Amino acid sequence: MNEETTLSSGYPWVKWQQAWLDEGLAQTRRMLHLPLVWNRAQRIKKGATPSEVIYEEDRLKLLHYRDSEPPRYRTPLLFVYALVNRPYILDLKPGRSVVANFVNRGFDTYLVDWGVPTHADRHLTLDDYINGYLVNVVDYLCERTGLPQINILGYCMGGTMSAMFTALHPKRLKNLLLLAAGIDFATRDGLLNLWTRSEYFDVDKFIEAFGICPAEFLQASFLLLNPVQNLLEKPINFYQNADNEQYLDDFLTTEMWLNDNIPVAGEVFREFVKYLYQQNLLTQNRMPVGKHIVNLRNITCPIMNIMARNDDLVPCAQSTTFNDLVSSKDRQSIIFPAGHIGLAIGSKAQKEVWPQVCDWLAKRS
Amino acid sequence: MNDSSENLSDQVAAFQKIWTEAFSRMAQSAFAFSPDSAPPELMRQIRSGIFQALAQSWDEYLRSPQFLEAMKQWMDNAMMFRKVTNDFFTKARHETQDIAREDIDSMMLAVRHMEKRILDRLESLSARVDELTQAKPNGPVGGAARRRATAARRQAAAAQGSRKPSRPSQTKNPL
Predict the structure, then answer these.
(1) CB atoms closer than 10 angstroms to residue B12
(2) Per the count of CB atoms within 10 A, which of A15, A180, B11, B30 is most buried?
């Protein structure tokens, strides 16, 4: 037994002094690194996988992800992202990209970027997005590949829209993958479900006054879902890791995306809040999309439903019922212990969830 | 005491209860430390406990009727303010013979209604043509020929490098 150990075990204040000294040095390191953070933030890039725009319509852009080798699976895979925030979260950075998982496995991968709506788009409805833009994109992909069907992976609100699209056009889909997609809005687990109740939130008056749903309003709502974590823990964690290169890179990339909000077209927002959050029409097979009514029983293709256990935006209870509402015989669920964003870009999800999902899709493509 | 003041005092009591419990939980976390931990580590543990207690209380508060009522009031005021501002600017622009956002919105809505009527009419015409094609003895051949022609047109458009939207553009306007 050496002298140091004896002192440490016998007199805790020696150990404490050492700990204070270490902490002091760490603080100095962090303080010295802080001025470099701004420079680093300027160098953050959006997207990890090379891509090209192959189709444009109004504000919509369809990206095709390039790979050095030709795709191993012929059926194209289309990522459909939400109308809130930007879609590059799905291809955030190397090692944190959902898209890269599929591209590297040999899938012919595409992504819909809906663009940023302005006041001129306030009248766009779910019908325009689903039966207009999405149908045109699927038509184009089928034409391009010479195949009658495609695979769709929908994330968050994009997942809800993908489910509606599949129910309205069941023959166009080979496989449907949903990632944290809200389907059953009857649950009161989520704060958004509570805040949007008709007695507290008059969506008609809101859209009449604002025209479109402002990006700042959405961002404030998302921040308020978990104020202690977003406004206290996050800045403290950032400071404590200011000298950790890897942490800084992940933090700055994610924060850049989180603060890169976009508005939502007014009519779509109205329909989403009124028909889904307030009336929960989708699970009752009464959801109107233009002249059509969405019947989830029309969905017969294989289903993969991926959910996050700690999701505060789309609680698990909002997605779990989906598999029971469709007619598909081949349906599978994954509930992963992560949050809404961690499910896509978390390092554990990258190692455990996405290889499993790629295997599932490879067997069916 | 009338109903509104009773209601207010109930709300204040509920609000106080949530936050008194929060501070009590935070105090418990702050003093639940082990003497074996080194001070910086201890500080981290205390901070984590306090944040956990605070997060729990905030979640409770954000679900409470008090918060929901306050949120409703705030939203109503924000919408009212926005509406008054919109009305003021519309009136000011109209007084100066200028075009207000409301006029553009009305025009956009009229265009959308017109577009919808045209698309509905086209759809019904297309359905009728399909019916007529099916009714003809050589119907399916005609249908196949039409599909081939459509595919050829699309291929030609794709070869040009850009694809034209197959539905009328809604955002290609001077706004």
Answers:
(1) 11
(2) A180
Max distance between CA atoms of chain B, in angstroms, equals: 94
Alpha helices in A241-341 (DSSP H): 245-258, 266-271, 322-325
Give the bridge partners for A175, in sequence order.
A151
B108–A122 C-beta distance less than 8 A: yes
To the nearest whole angstrom, how far is the Cα of A210 from the nearest Cα of chain B? Answer: 7
- Helix ranges (H only) for chain A are 3-10, 12-42, 98-104, 126-127, 135-145, 157-168, 191-195, 203-210, 215-225, 227-228, 234-240, 245-258, 266-271, 322-325, 342-345, 347-364
Nearest to A130 by CA among A110, A147, A112: A112
Whole-angstrom Cα Rg for chain A: 23
CA A303 to chain centre: 18
Q: Which residues of chain A have a pLDDT value below 70?
A: 1-11
* Distance from C-alpha of A30 to C-alpha of A244, rounded to nearest angstrom: 9
Instruction: Quote the ipTM score.
Output: 0.81
Q: Which residue of A has its CA nearest to B170?
A: A58
Cβ neighbours, 10 Å, residue B42:
16
What is the enclosing helix (H) or strand (E) of A154?
strand A150-155
Write down the H helix ranges in B1-64: 3-31, 39-63
Q: Taking CB atoms and an 8 Å cutoff, what residues of chain B touch A191?
A: 59, 62-63
Q: Rounded distance, CA A48 to CA A81, Å? A: 17
Which member of B82, B105, B163 has the closest CB to residue A55? B163
Q: How deeply is A102 buried, as exposed, middle or buried, from its count of CB atoms within 10 A (0-12, 13-18, 19+)? A: buried
A38/A17 Cα distance (integer angstroms): 34
Compute the radius of gyration of chain B from its Cα atoms.
33
What confidence score (pLDDT) does residue A33 get? 83
Q: Do B173 and A205 touch (CB under 8 A)?
A: no
Contact A151, A78 (CB under 8 A): yes
| Tens digits of residue pLDDT in A190-234 | 899 999 999 999 999 999 999 999 999 999 999 999 999 999 999
B68 to A195: CB separation less than 8 angstroms, yes or no: yes
Cβ <8 Å between B175 and A227:
no
Cα separation, A146 vs B138, in Å, equals 27
The beta-carbon neighbor of B71 closest among A19, A20, A195 is A195
Cα–Cα dist A156/B33, whole Å: 41
Yes or no: say if A160 and A322 are a contact pair by the CB < 8 Å rule.
no
Mutation to test the A interface, candidates B57, B82, B106, most A Cβ within 10 Å: B82
Residues comprising chain B, all counted: 175
CA closest to A191 among chain B residues: B63
* pLDDT tens per residue across span B47-103: 888 888 889 889 999 999 999 999 999 999 999 999 999 999 999 999 999 999 889
Residue B1 has pLDDT above 90, yes or no: no
